Amino acid sequence: MLRRAAAISVHLVGPFWGRKAGASLTRCLHQTLTMAKQLPARRLDGIDHNPWVEFIKLSNEYDVVNLGQGFPDFSPPDFAVKAFQQATSGDFMLNQYTMAFGYPPLTKLLASFFGKLLGQELDPFKNVLVTVGAYGALFTAFQALVDKGDEVIIIEPAFDCYEPMTLMAGGRPVFVSLKPNPAPKGQLDTSSDWQLDPTELASKFTSRTKALVLNTPNNPLGKVFSKAELELVAGLCQQHDTVCIADEVYQWLVYDGHQHVSIASLPGMWGRTLTIGSAGKSFSATGWKVGWVLGPDNIMKHLRTVHQNSVFHCPTQAQAAVAQCFEQEQQHFGQPSSYFLQFPQAMQLNRDHMIHSLQSVGLKPLTPQGSYFLIVDISDFKSTMPSLPGAVDEPYDRRFAKWMIKNKVGSSTGCILVKVSIFFSRPHQKDFDHYLRFCFVKDEATLQAMDERLQKWKAELQP
Ligand SMILES: Cc1ncc(COP(=O)(O)O)c(C=O)c1O
Fold first, then answer.
1. CA 137 to ligand 1: nearest atom
2. Which ranges carry the Aminotransferase class I/classII large domain (predicted)?
3. What is the pTM assigned to this prediction?
4. What domains can you pick out in the chain, each with its CATH number?
């Protein structure tokens, strides 16, 4: 029936190559399937736009310094590199399947490590699920909990997958914005100046609210929610019988003595919180794509159902490498030799380097308290250079980011950055179209290249 309903048009593109010694006949086939029925599932309606594609393409076309995407462009620590090498060259059984919900040595370590931090006795089989990155953890959580018509409160600016994941599960995203309160004159704005209005937040809860997504430290702002802010969120979740999906992938990346607090550790919250983490962000190895969810068994059992009927299993060797990393970290945790202490110290220096460099060319960075990122306020440029190339209805930050990439300065072009409006829901994008996100988890050489480009750019802008 499918075959009858479908008409397949075949376009042959590219040359037919003659058979040469050692080379096989190669044909390039592009097939376009045209169906009488609607081809994509309706759950994809409105979520097919990918804000990253255009910028990744531009970064390949131009000689840019990539400060856009959130990954380190330097090696993971030696112990992590060795752990991965050992996992791929040691025990041959690591080439095979392991337990579906996580490689047992890893789930055991995650349970003991995070159990102490959350003040809970965690069962490695019931309270821990290993996933394909934190992304996989989020997807599993949304699929397991969000039903048609359920509402999910998303605090924006928000990591851009929360909205499509809510929609794909049939839910309705309900947005509440952190709003900036300008710092006193002469002081640098910081991510802590962005706050929730308690009355507005409370007004977003209804009888349909199933979950609230909390991301601390926040991407893209770098805000670390204070204990008082978490208590506000926790109180409302309890009052309205709501699950909290806590995305804490940047939990080790906190600066200036700020403390990350897991909302699951607050009174009454363990039983309604899913805490999500990422080995990629923890050990500077984002390509490993190992993440996890921690939570109470009565919620986790539904995530296990999704996991066993979708991904089923994450690569054993990557899990074994992460287990070894945690074993190493467990021996040093709380001491000066801890990677979770040393890495943020190093990244704080990077952050300060970047802030200084941006200020030296007249840009206005906000000091982040945590995460890989800082945002820069470009509203001064918006008033002095309102008409950058681009469509009139394009948010200003998008036009600015493209101009920054393409604008030639000497023999090179600029830096690749991320526009902050993509972290806001569509109705709010216009209000927040004058910020750019920079990633400072970059090598010294990348930061120096940024300095040079910014200085050339400044020289060009001066009359
Ligand atoms: C806030 C946030 N959550 C989740 C993820 C995904 O993490 P992972 O690479 O472990 O899938 C990212 C990645 O950038 C992120 O910024």
1. 11
2. 63-381
3. 0.91
4. 2-37 (no CATH), 51-74+338-461 (3.90.1150.10), 78-332 (3.40.640.10)
